[in-house]
Amino acid sequence: MSLNDVLLQFEQVAYRYPDGSTGLDGCSLGIRAGSRNALLGANGAGKTTLFQHANGLLQPQGGVVRYAGTPVDYSRAGLRRLRTDIGLVFQNPDRQLFSASVREDVSFGPLNLGLDTDTVRQRVDAALDAVGLGHAADKAVHNLSFGQKKRVCIAGVLAMEPKLLILDEPMAGLDNAMREELLSVLNGLHAKGITLLLATHDIDF
Following DSSP, what letter does each residue of 71-139 receive, concatenated? Predict the structure, then answer.
């Protein structure tokens, strides 16, 4: 893998939580642009910790995280740029959804970028169509199924037009039909050129 191909790179990253437990210890990996990746590991293995370093929610205590070949800039402006390019979808959708309606929730990120109303509307419509929820734009978030909430979270990240989409245990809590729907969504996003990185402890998936 040449450095030119690597979108996200961890070099000997270490992180220890305030209680003394190890989150990461000498973690190195590279995520190639346009690739599709699964991070396997049992609960507590450090998958979520790694993801939180990937978009700057956590800062390494040792080693370095690079995006597009450059060390992550942890200033406010630097993190805003990073989180525009790297979208993180949490395992529990209720951690990520906070607006009354689907459209409001998906609009939040693009509006914070200072985009005009028409651009935001176009992005939101495209993102909801990509996850198969164009018909649900005006629905109340609390009336959605668990699987639909997960897809709204993905739409909210897609509306930022990220280059890398990170999903923490995206299949957790979904039945088989919902898993098939979500897998179809992810395949479609990858086909459009979005790099995917997801965590799972389900080896069959």
Answer: E---SHHHHHHHHHHEEEE-SSGGGT--SSBHHHHHHHHHHHTT--HHHHHHHHHHHHHHTT-GGGTTS
